From TrEMBL:
It comes from the Bacteria. This is Photosynthetic protein synthase I. It holds the Pfam family SCO1-SenC. The lineage of its organism: Bacteria, Pseudomonadati, Pseudomonadota, Betaproteobacteria, Burkholderiales. Residues 30-205 form the Thioredoxin domain. InterPro entries: SCO1/SenC, Thioredoxin-like_sf, Thioredoxin_domain. Belongs to the SCO1/2 family. Residues 1-31 form the signal peptide. The keyword Kinase does not apply. Keywords: Copper, Signal. It comes from Pseudorhodoferax aquiterrae.
Length: 205
């Protein structure tokens, strides 16, 4: 009879076993290294050093700043009342997003800032914004202050002659503030009302 000897795993098998065990131990760590899903559908600009406030007049002549809307999510959009498609689409979508939020929608303030104060008088602004939602607020300022504000928001606009009149090219983004008055998200024009509502719900939670 041959003497009994203990079984010794071949070196190659031992290495494979150690690698398998090591890989299994690393799985939880690797899972923790996966990139987190984006917090918002829009562009997360939390901590941005621009667009921190505004100082504009409402149709009644009252000066409005961001502090007036503390406790609310604020959607701010630059546009003009004679805009043929972008502005009506943006405001209609904002109204739909607000409706999708149900009771939470009462904590959403939409602010429409005109880049055409020459034609967008207080009465015109009031009639225009209330046609989409009575709670929407149209704000205005002088030509010089409007230009300075747009620059502060990194927004762009320019007057484009059209025969005997003119139109306005402008940035088609919506700036969103959380209830503490911090700029958090920039929503793109190609996003849906459902995506707007999802981001607003996150800010209001």
């Amino acid at each position: 009879m041959y003497p009994s000897t203990p079984f010794v795993r071949p070196p190659a098998l031992r290495r494979r076993g150690l690698l398998a065990a090591g890989s299994a131990a690393l799985l939880p760590l690797l899972a923790g290294c996966q990139p987190a899903p984006p917090a918002f559908n829009g562009i997360d600009v939390s901590g941005a050093d621009y667009g921190k406030d505004f100082r504009l007049q409402d149709p009644s002549g009252r000066t409005r700043t961001l502090a007036d809307f503390k406790g609310q999510a604020v959607l701010l959009f630059f546009g003009f009342t004679q805009c043929p498609d972008v502005c009506p689409t943006a405001l209609a979508r904002a109204a739909q997003a607000r409706a999708l939020l149900g009771a939470l929608g009462q904590r959403v303030q939409v602010v429409f800032v005109t880049v055409d104060p020459e034609r967008d008088t207080p009465a015109v602004l009031q009639a225009y914004t209330s046609a989409f939602d009575p709670s929407f607020l149209g704000l205005h300022s002088t030509l010089e202050e409007t230009a300075a504000l747009a620059k502060n928001f990194k927004a762009h606009y320019k007057k484009v002659p059209t025969g005997s009149s003119y139109t306005m090219d402008h940035t088609a983004l919506t700036y969103v503030y959380d209830p503490a008055g911090r700029l958090r998200v920039v929503l793109r024009h190609d996003q849906s009302a459902e995506q707007f509502a999802q981001d607003l719900r996150r800010l209001l939670a």
